[in-house]
Automatic annotation (TrEMBL):
Subunit organization: Associates with the 50S ribosomal subunit.
Name of the molecule in the record: GTPase Der
Covered range of the whole protein: 1 to 163 of 450
EngA-type G domain segment(s): 3-163
Sites where the protein binds GTP 1: 9-16, 56-60, 119-122
Taxonomic lineage from the root: Bacteria, Pseudomonadati, Pseudomonadota, Alphaproteobacteria, Hyphomicrobiales
Function: GTPase that plays an essential role in the late steps of ribosome biogenesis.
Domain of life per record: Bacteria
Family from the record: Belongs to the TRAFAC class TrmE-Era-EngA-EngB-Septin-like GTPase superfamily. EngA (Der) GTPase family.
Signal peptide region: none
Length: 163
């Protein structure tokens, strides 16, 4: 089975880090500064016995180049429209922000199967954000550490369930 999964969420939650981990190459630019993912990037991802196309989105990073709302919609809508399922990512250390909530309502309205991922969940400090994430109405958050490669088997299960 072949399918396309788009990673969406506000800047700096770790979307490109997960993209790189699943593709196994440094195709997406990872940076501390919001604003580095300029394009939608696609790669061939592998996770266990799953092989799929993964799309890394820019989120709001280009917002200052035009209307914030407009940029968000254009970027996110295009990625969502082309995807079979979405991976909606939040930062478990920071918890929910207004931007997360705006993204979440947009994602919910799309009606696409969505996996909620609470990234940066390694060590201590991730629990609060993961608990908050339940309030998004996107199901049970999958705790993940894209950077350390933790939680990938739970992500695998969540993808299988979503499809
Ligand atoms: P994006 O803007 O959503 O694409 O986020 P990036 O992938 O560029 O990552 C933003 C920052 O978060 C970088 O400094 C990453 O190293 C860091 N980061 C990504 N994943 C994790 C993680 O699992 N744990 C921690 N602690 N930091 C992470
Ligand atoms: Mg990025």
């Amino acid at each position: 089975m072949s399918f396309t999964l788009a990673i969406v969420g506000r800047p700096n939650v770790g979307k490109s880090t997960l993209f790189n981990r699943l593709v196994g190459k440094k195709l997406a630019l990872v940076d501390d500064r919001p604003g580095v993912t300029r394009d939608r990037r696609e790669g061939d991802a592998r996770l266990g016995d799953l092989a799929f196309t993964i799309v890394d989105t820019a989120g709001l990073e280009e917002a200052d180049a035009g209307s914030l709302e407009g940029r968000m919609r254009a970027q996110t809508e295009a990625a969502i429209a082309d995807a079979d399922a979405l991976l909606f990512m939040i930062d478990a250390r920071i918890g929910l922000t207004p931007t997360d909530r705006a993204f979440a309502s947009f994602v919910r309205k799309s009606g696409k199967p969505t996996i909620l991922v609470a990234n940066k969940s390694e060590g201590r400090g991730g629990e609060a954000g993961a608990i908050e994430a339940y309030a998004l109405g996107l199901g049970t958050p999958v705790p993940l550490s894209a950077e350390h490669g933790e939680g990938l088997s739970d992500l695998y299960d969540a993808i299988c369930e979503a499809l």
